[in-house]
Specification:
Length: about 230
């Protein structure tokens, strides 16, 4: 295995044809190693090439070089007379999604930085790391991730959080055993918390801050142990 072959994962089924370096950009010419294509609609196998086109997505940086792939993609004829699709592009979805401008692994790295730093700070860091991207794109990468399913913790932490300090507050709910936030409520009223507890039965212990709002009458119907923290959760 050569160094250029090691750059691409085996599941990509791509082979390296040429490498060119201009300034700080490394352009790697690649093409599919398969001699045939599989129709995505009827799964028929075809070896008849209709045409070819180029894609130039960005990839992970290598040795301080920005990396761009010059990818040759073939279109095949579908030989199944019953299939409505006459031609199709060869599938490389495990490595890059259709119409995407970046490989899946680059998008994943950028997404991780977006979650850690947000849009503006993440964009500045990724530019230094050789994975430049706009802050708007980082926010879109965050929004593409589906929200995790809310689970019912055994030990629930309840505290308020400021939407606008001194003016508007909400409630944050934390699984104290896993030490992770699980939900946000739009206000800090006892009614909202009581409704959440009714929808998520199974909480055994609630740890709240020193505020009096969370111990008002709507919560008294829940047979739970409330632990009062002197400094909040």
């Amino acid at each position: 295995m050569t160094l250029t072959d090691a750059i691409l994962p085996d599941e990509s089924k791509l082979c390296v044809n040429n490498v060119q370096i201009i300034n700080r950009t490394m352009t790697i010419s690649v093409s599919s190693a398969d001699q045939k294509g599989v129709c995505p609609h009827c799964q028929a196998i075809s070896q008849r090439v209709h045409s070819c086109y180029q894609r130039q997505p960005n990839d992970l940086p290598f040795a301080e070089y920005n990396v761009r792939l010059d990818m040759l993609v073939r279109r095949f004829f579908c030989d199944n007379d019953r299939c409505e699709t006459k031609t199709f592009a060869e599938g490389i979805s495990k490595f890059i999604k259709p119409y995407a401008r970046r490989t899946n692994r680059l998008a994943n790295q950028q997404q991780q930085v977006a979650f850690a730093l947000g849009g503006n700070a993440g964009s500045r860091l990724l530019t230094i790391l050789g994975m430049p991207v706009s802050h708007d794109t980082l926010i879109r990468l965050i929004r593409k991730v589906s929200e995790p399913e809310i689970h019912t913790p055994r030990v629930l932490g309840v505290d308020d959080w400021a939407k606008s300090k001194g003016r508007s507050y909400g409630t944050i709910l934390v699984d104290l055993e896993l030490r992770e936030a699980i939900d946000l409520l739009p206000d800090r009223t006892s009614e909202s918390l009581a409704n959440w507890l009714k929808e998520h039965p199974g909480v055994e212990i609630i740890s709240r801050d020193r505020g009096s709002e969370y111990i008002k009458e709507p919560l008294m119907g829940h047979r739970m142990l409330f632990r009062l923290l002197t400094a909040g959760i």
